[in-house]
Specification:
DNA-binding (chains A, B); Homeodomain-like_sf (chains A, B); DNA binding (chains A, B); Arc Repressor Mutant, subunit A; mainly alpha; HTH-type_Tx_Regulator (chains A, B); homodimer; DNA-binding; HTH_TetR (chains A, B)
DNA sequence: GTCTATACAACGATAGAC
DNA sequence: GTCTATCGTTGTATAGAC
C-alpha cells in the first residue's frame, strides 16, 4: 500500500474512532458530522471523501465489528437443533448476546438509537427485532417440533426475548453510578426466561 | 370561562391533537414544532404562547393521559402485597401495562423515543426504566420476603420485565402488515415470565 | 391571542485552491 | 486527499402589527 493510500486509511480510521468515542458519550443521534471531524482533527470536507453520510459510517463501524470474527458468534457451527428449553444452551445464547452488547456498546447502542429514531410508520422497529431474533425463532420452532410446550408463537417469543436483551442492554449501558456484574445479569436473565418467576430454583 | 380563554384553550387543544397525530405517524423525534403548528392550522408563533418547547408539550400530553384516571391503574388500591409468582396476578399487571401502551400509543411511544434519544451519559434510560418498574420491584421484594426464590435482584428482574414490555410494545406498535391479538400477546408474555421456556404448561 | 415576517443558529453538503 | 470557505436548507425563537 502506497503512502497516499496509507494516509487516507489513517484519516478514515481517525474518523471511525472519533465517531465511536462520541457515540458512546453523546449517542448517535446527538452526534453531528461536524462533531466527528472536529474530534478527529480533520476538516469537514474530508468526511465526505470517506463516507456519504453518518449512517454509512455507522454501517462501516458495524462491518468492522463483524470483521473481528468474534469467536463467540460462530455462525458456521450453529445448527438449528439447539434447545433453548435446556438451561445451559439458553444461557449460552444469552451470554453471547449480552457480551457482544457490552464489548461493542458504542456501535450497538448507536444501531439501537437509529432503529428507534426511524419513523414508526416504517415498521423498522418490528422488522429489525424480528430479523435479529431469527436464530432464536428457529431454535424455538425446533423445540416445538420436538413436542415441547412453548409460551406462544415462536416469532413472538423470540421477539420478546430480543426486546428484553436490547432494551436492558441499552439501559444498563447508560447507567451511571451503578455497577453490574455481567455474569450475575446473565444468570438472572437465564433463570427468568428458563423457569420464569415461579419456576423451580434450587 | 370567557370567550377569550375558550379560544385559547381551543388552540391549545388543537396543538395537542395535531402533535399526537404526528407523533403516531412520524414519531416524536421527526416531528418539528413547525409541523405541529401547520397540522393544527395555526401560526408558528402561537405555539410558544402555550408551550415553551416540544418536550413541554409532550409532558402536557402525558398529563392528559394520566388525568383520564384510567380505572385500569388504580394506584390507590395497589398494595405492596401482590405476588407476581402467582400467574393471575402477574397476568393482571402485564395486561395493564400492555393495554396502556396500546391505547395511548402515540404518547407512550413518544416518551420512549425521547428516553432513547437522551445522551447515554445522562443515564436517563436506566433511571427511567427503574422508575417505571418501581411497583414491580416492590412486589418482587415482597415475594422474596415470603420465602419465594426469585431469578435475581428484584430491581434487575423488574427492569428486565419492564424492558421487555417497553421495547416489544414499541416494536409491535410500529409493525405494519402484521396483526396482533393483544390477549394472545399478554398470555404469551405471562407464560414466558411465569414459568419460563421450560416451565410446566398444561 | 394570533398572526406575518424575520432574525438567528445549526448543520449538511459542495466548490475550488493547494 | 485535505484543506478553507461558503452556499442553502431547515428549524427555533422572537418582534411587532392587528
Amino acid at each position: 500500500m502506497g503512502v497516499r493510500k496509507a494516509k487516507a486509511a489513517e484519516t478514515r480510521t481517525a474518523l471511525l474512532d472519533a465517531a465511536r468515542r462520541l457515540f458512546a458519550e453523546r449517542g448517535y443521534l446527538n452526534t453531528k458530522i461536524t462533531d466527528i471531524t472536529k474530534e478527529a482533527g480533520r476538516a469537514t470536507g474530508s468526511f465526505y471523501e470517506h463516507f456519504t453520510s453518518k449512517d454509512e459510517l455507522l454501517q462501516a463501524l458495524l462491518q468492522g465489528m463483524e470483521d473481528r470474527a468474534d469467536e463467540l458468534v460462530d455462525t458456521a457451527v450453529h445448527p438449528r437443533e439447539h434447545d433453548l428449553t435446556d438451561r445451559a444452551q439458553l444461557r449460552q445464547h444469552l451470554a453471547v448476546s449480552w457480551t457482544v452488547f457490552r464489548e461493542h456498546a458504542p456501535v450497538v447502542s448507536a444501531l439501537f438509537q437509529a432503529m428507534i429514531a426511524a419513523e414508526p410508520g416504517s415498521g423498522r422497529a418490528w422488522n429489525d427485532l424480528v430479523g435479529e431474533t431469527g436464530i432464536l425463532k428457529q431454535h424455538l420452532e425446533y423445540s416445538a417440533e420436538q413436542g415441547k410446550a412453548l409460551p406462544g408463537d415462536p416469532e413472538l417469543v423470540a421477539a420478546a426475548i430480543g426486546a428484553m436483551l436490547a432494551m436492558l442492554g441499552y439501559a444498563v449501558n447508560s447507567a451511571r453510578g451503578r455497577e453490574f456484574d455481567d455474569d450475575a445479569v446473565i444468570d438472572t436473565l437465564t433463570d427468568l426466561l428458563h423457569s420464569g418467576l415461579a419456576g423451580p430454583r434450587d
